[in-house]
Amino acid sequence: MTKIRVHEYAKKVDKPSKEIIDQLSKLNIEVANHMATLEDNAVTKLDGIYKKPAAGRTQARQQHQAQNRPSGQGQSRPQNSGQGSSRPAGQGQSRPQNSGQGQSRPAGQGQSRPQSSGQGQSRPAGAKGSNFTPKAAKPTAGPGQRNNRPGGGGGRGGQNRNRKGRQQQPVNPLPPMPKREKELPAKITFSESLTVAELAKKLGREPSEIIKKLFMLGVMATINQELDKDAIELICAEYEVEVEEEILVDKTDLEVYFEPEDETLQEERPPVVTIMGHVDHGKTTLLDSIRNTKVTAGEAGGITQHIGAYQVVENGKKITFLDTPGHAAFTTMRARGAKVTDLAIIVVAADDGVMPQTVEAINHAKAAEVPIIIAVNKMDKPSANPDRVMQELTEHGLVPEAWGGETIFVPISALKGEGIDALLEMILLVSEVGELKANPARRAIGTVIEAELDKGRGSVATLLVQDGTLHVGDPIVVGNTFGRVRAMVNDLGRRVKDAGPSTPVEITGLNDVPQAGDRFVVFEDEKTARQVGETRATSALQVQRSEKTRVTLDNLFDQLKQGEMKELNLIVKADVQGAVEAMAASLMKIDVEGVNVKIIHTGAGAITESDISLAAASNAIVIGFNVRPDVNAKRAAEAEGVDIRLHRIIYKVIEEIEFAMKGLLDPEFEEKIIGQAEVRSTFKVSKVGTIAGSYVVEGKITRDSGVRVIREGIVVFEGELDTLKRFKDDAKEVAKGYECGITIKNFNDIKEGDVIEAFVMEEIERK
Ligand SMILES: Nc1nc2c(ncn2[C@@H]2O[C@H](COP(=O)(O)OP(=O)(O)OP(=O)(O)O)[C@@H](O)[C@H]2O)c(=O)[nH]1
Asked: Which domain holds residue 592?
């Protein structure tokens, strides 16, 4: 053990060495000079005089060391002082400390080494104390904080150790320190879900703690378990941490671009009007009349072009009309989620009154929450009776203003062009109330009014710009198509470069033909537009594929009728190759007008899973002649919806297919397999025949069921069950998991390993 020298002690007590030597002399302790070492008892005595604490020696040593190194260097301190002997550590020592040793010594000067305290705490040991700077010494982690990282990180570890040392000094033995936990975040965010581990990380807690909390809440979770929103919220509530779900924006969902935006950027836009009404009440005449009086008059040289919508100007304000009369277009668009119309004009012939389609139109407009203006048409006719129209409409909740209601009625004659101006004025009035606005500065969004494939120009689509401005050259996604706006033509057949809100324009430049009612969105660049368009096209195709119904003999005729099928694909499996060929040849001879029978695959042996996947991929029906599907094939067929037809007589196969193709399939009965039993042993009993000692492996076997004997996937016999016994008693049915004795009528060649399949004929309802 290193002893303290006189000058060291002097330094420690802040006295000159000489005074210490004198004092020692007074105590009858002789020392040669200031370099002399002091015995323990001498130190004790000196301590008594200089009132130094018991740990004086160590402390003296520490102070001495402190003076001999740059300030801030990891200050050594005694650990577990008071336990047994205490001594200063040799400088430069580097070894693990174990407080359990009962020895305490200051750490070497800030040197890096792993420390292991009796508390089992493991913390990063400090790096070289010389790296310390006062700034770096700022505490970051509290004592007692679990920190299992390996040492070696900068000055902080050393500083931590110092802190620990200072705090530990008076404590003996060290009680388990209260765990100081990381501060909880004020708020966490997540999207969709988080695993326990991810949530723990976000909260700065151990996953085990989260698991414990979940357990207390009645949720058993593992570290990698995904937690749903509710569970995350519950846990966060426990910690009083705010939680917010981030909604991931799906770039390919065009609807998100239709969210309303900052109103301050918006300007007034023209209303978009649809004309609806009963047949022959004058919708087309009205649309033409408006167009002719308003468009051609002002636009010299303009050749009106039917692009599905047009604009007129009334009192210096534009009005857009959708040029597709009737509510079919209106409903189609609405069904596709597009709200295009701001106002509906319902035309009612004054000589005819409210008719069924008038009511339908009213209901459509109401459902779409679109304001209605009633145009009472054919006022020029002597038989016109507008009062009757008004009367009838009140029954549908449309009360004219004249009668104290709110509905605007405008008497017109579409044919003579009378009342058109009044109607347009009313349209403007109603739209003013509606405060229709858009931001012409943003990238355009809108809806497809019409689209077709033009021989010369390719895909041509009429778009109604609903917000923003569409420019030639804009990268665009339209429904599931994309492209760049190559050329734009307005309703007057003129080429335009830009189209603002509520403007209909016909564009070219799309890679495919979109559908009426599809949304369009202009993107920042062509690459994004392409990506979004392609992704949308792919997912649309997948949806279409998954929706495609598989052909079955039951729906075959319907599919043929709808012209969806020109060919009937078949896969033929039979017990022997000869039968396969015979079957295939007979099937090929089936002659039903307009349909070809195409055999895409044949084979001898049981129907396998690969037969089913081929059938699924090529929309084929599988025909099994004297063969059965194996377990996997059965499962696959059920999952894929593949129709398997099992037969034992060739002409029945042919008949069934032929009838199905002609839509004459007998709809009444269908075979249903109710169970299977495995033959485990056989007994020959005279007079009775062969008894099959069997075990029911699936479903059940009933007394009245038909049976088939299957040997290695091939049907060797089909007939009726004769007796069914449990032990010695006759049984009505034997369920899965039970043994039974079975005899089959007129069949004694039963063998061990055979499978007896039981089936019943069930009456079914054909679709
Ligand atoms: N006298 C008179 N006849 C009109 C008026 N408006 C339309 N008609 C006539 O009514 C008939 C039907 O007019 P359309 O405009 O084709 O009616 P619609 O509602 O478009 O009919 P559908 O397209 O079949 O639904 C035509 O013969 C028009 O000439 C009108 O104001 N006065």
From this structure: 565-664
